[in-house]
Amino acid sequence: QVQLVESGGGLVQPGESLRLSCAASGRTFSRYTLAWFRQALGSERKFVAAIRSGGDTFYGDSVEDRFTISRDAAENTMYLQMNSLKPEDTAVYYCAASNREYYNSLYRYENNYAYWGQGTQVTVSS
After folding, report:
1. Which of 97, 88, 98, 71 is nearest to 123 (CA)?
2. Residue 108: φ, ψ to 5°
3. What HEC string does 9-74 produce?
4. Residue 96 confidence (pLDDT) above 90
5. Closest Cα to residue 97, out of 77, 82, 75?
6. Dist. CA 10–CA 114, nearest whole Å
7. Sign of CA dihedral 112, 33, 106, 96
8. Of 126, 116, 124, whose CA–CA distance to 18 is shortest?
9. For residue range 13-53, what is the model confidence (pLDDT) as tens digits?
């Protein structure tokens, strides 16, 4: 069983940056599709970014050119670099993993991910 633990969340001012980490244990996810989702208070969980096992990356429209997803196979860790943060980025951020390769935008749907972290809070406020 894959276990995921997020870290790196916190309180920042608009325009600042954070880097979230997602560490896996129990099994290497070098061949997994990995993703970040977020859920703001009172809102549904939304897609943020995904990275395939081969390294292809995909982003939600709201984070285009501001966030970067990456993975380090040697450390069995995934990252989300978040720059130019806005108040509307405030949410609980979750990492997710799937042992499937998704095509035709299926990586955007949370139901396609079997493994989830507990979430880390990101708050962007003055």
Report:
1. 88
2. -80, -10
3. CEEECCCCCEEEEEEEECCCCCCCEEEEEEECCCCCCEEEEEECCCCCEEECHHHCCCEEEEEECC
4. yes
5. 77
6. 26
7. positive
8. 124
9. 999 999 999 998 877 788 899 999 999 999 999 999 999 98
